[in-house]
Amino acid sequence: xxRIVSLCKRRGFIFQSSEIYGGINGFWDYGPLGAELKRNxxxxxxxxxxxxxxxxxxxxxxxxxxxxxxxASGHTTTFADPMVDCLLTKKRFRADQIEPSSGIVYSFAxxxxxxxxxxxxxxxSVLLQKGEHPDRARKTAxxxxxxxxxxxxxxxxxxLQGEKTEKVENSTRFNxxxxxxxxxxxxxxxxxxxxxxxxxxxxxTAYLRPETAQAIFAQFKNTxxxxxxxxxxxxxxxxxxxRNEINPRNFTFRSREFEQMELEFFIRPDEAxxxxxxxxxxxxQPGHPGQPQANWGWQLWHQYWVEERLAFYEGIGLPRTSxxxxxxxxxxxxxxxxxxxxxxYKFPFSKRDEKGELMGEELEGVAAxxxxxxxxxxxxxxxxxxxxxxxxxxxxxxLEEKRQQELTERYCGARKKYLTKMGEEEPAAEKAAREDAAxxxxxxxxxxxxxxxxxxxxxxxxxxxxxxxxxxxPDEKGKMETRILMRFHPRIAxxxxxxxxxxxxxxxxxxKALEVRDLLRPHLTVFYDEAGAIGRRxxxxxxxxxxxxxxxxxxTLGEKGPELKDTVTLRERDTMKQTRLPISGLxxxxxxxxx
Length: 595
Ligand code: GAP
What we know:
32% helix; alpha+beta; five-stranded mixed sheet; binds glycyl-adenosine-5'-phosphate; 595 residues
C-alpha cells in the first residue's frame, strides 16, 4: 500500500488536503490525474445508471437541507458511532473497531507521591500481552497518574497502590497500542453541524448532508410529477457527503469529506404486485435475473441491482475475483432493511480470513429498505408520499374476496409493524395501518425502495490499487529494468492517448505531432509530450496509466517510402506492442478501444 500511496502523490492522483499547513486528517485532494480519473468513473456511473436507462432520472440537490430531513431519516438520533478514548494518550477510537486482546490485566487503586504532596484514589489498569514484563504496566500506570496531576515529571516518584492482577480473554477495554484502559463507550453523532444565517442559535442549526440519498426522498414527489415516470422507476444522484468519522483511516478509504453515487429505485409493495400479477416471482437461482418483469417483488429487484452493480464494476476493470458479495447477517441489518448486500473490494489493507485470503472492504451497499424512508418523510412533513397505481386499482376488484382480505391483512400488518417501531401508540398505529390498507385497495401506496449506494473515493482507490503493477521492460540501452505501470481500463484511464514526436528538434515531426494531437483532442483526453528520450516518455505515461501512445516518426513524414507516409505507431501500454496505423484511421481505432 505504501508504494501506491507514494505513487499517488508523485504522479498527482491524490494529495493530502492543506498539506502546506501540515494536512487535515480525513480530507484529501485529487491532483490532475486523480481529478480526471474521478470524473471518468462518475461519468461512467451516471451514463450507466440514468442516461442508458428509460426508468431512472437524475437529481442534483443541495448539500445543506432543512434539518427536519435528518430528524425524519433518523440521522440526528441514530447516526452515531460508539467512541472510546485512551486514558493515557487521549487517542480516540471507534469502540467497534478495537481488536480484542488477551493477557494479564494489572489494576491499581490509586497512587501517591508523598514528597510532592500528591495522592489520587482512582482505579486504572493496563493490559499486558503474553511475555511482557510487569514493570511495563507499572510504568504506564505511573505515567497515567502523573498526567492526572498535570505533572509528567512526577512519574518516577509515584508509588502505586492496591496492585491486583487478573487474566482476561478477548477484551476490547484496552488500547491495542499501549495496553492502557479506555473510557466507557459513548455515542458520537457523525454529522457536521453548521449555522444558516448570521445568528448562531439552536433554531439556525443545519447539517452538512451525511448521505445524498435523503434529498432523493425529499424530492420524490416533485421528480415523479415532472418526469412522467411510474413505479417501478428510480432517481439517482451523486455528490459530496460529510461524516465526522472518529477514526479516518486507510488513505482515502474512510474520509470525512467524500462523494457518493446513490440510486433510489422505487418499486411496488409485494402485495400490489400480487394483486396485479396473481403472484410474486421468486428468485430461482443466483446471478442476473434478466430483464425486469412486472411480477418481480423486492427480492428479485434486489438481486437484479446487486448483479447490475457487479457488472458495472467489471465493466470499468475490476475483475470479479477482486470483488466479494457479502450478505449482511440478520443482526447486522438496519431495522428497516429486509436485506443488504455489501459489494466489497479486496483492498491490500483488507483483513485476511483463516486461509489467508483478503476479505475485502465495502465499496457499495445494495439495500432493500422497504417503504421506511418515504413513510418517515410522509409522517414528518405531513405531505403524502403515496403514488396512485392505475393497474392496481383496476386489478383489485377482480380479486376474490378471500385474496383481498389476505393481502389487506398482510399489508396492514407490515404498516402497523413500521408505525409501532417508530413509536406510534398501538390504537393509533392500528387505525393508520387500516387506512393505509384501505388505500391500497383503491390503488394508493407508499413505494418501497432498493438502494444501491456507492462511494466515489473508495471506487477511485480500488481502481488505483487494482491498476498498480510492476513488470520488467528494457531501458534505452536494452537493459531490463522495473517498470511501474497503472493498468487502468481504457474507459476510466485519466488520459486516453499520449502523442509523441520522435524527436523534439525536428520541426516537421513536431508539426505533424501537433496536427495529430489536434485531430484527436475533440474525441479523447490527449497528452502531448516532446520532452526527453522516447523511452522515458513511454514510462511516464505507463505510470499515469495512459493506455495508448501515438508516435510520429520519419516513416510518418514519408522518408522511408511513400507507402508509410501519414502512418504512425500505436503503442499499447500493457503489452508494449506497437502497430502501424494510418492517421486517418486513428480516431475510429482509439474510439473503439476506449469506449
Ligand atoms: N444512503 C446509504 C448510505 O449512505 P453507507 O453504507 O453509509 O450508506 C454508502 O454509505 C457508501 O458511501 C459506502 O459504501 C462507501 O462507499 C461510501 N462511504 C461511506 N462512508 C464513507 C467515508 N467515511 N469515506 C469514504 N466513503 C464512504
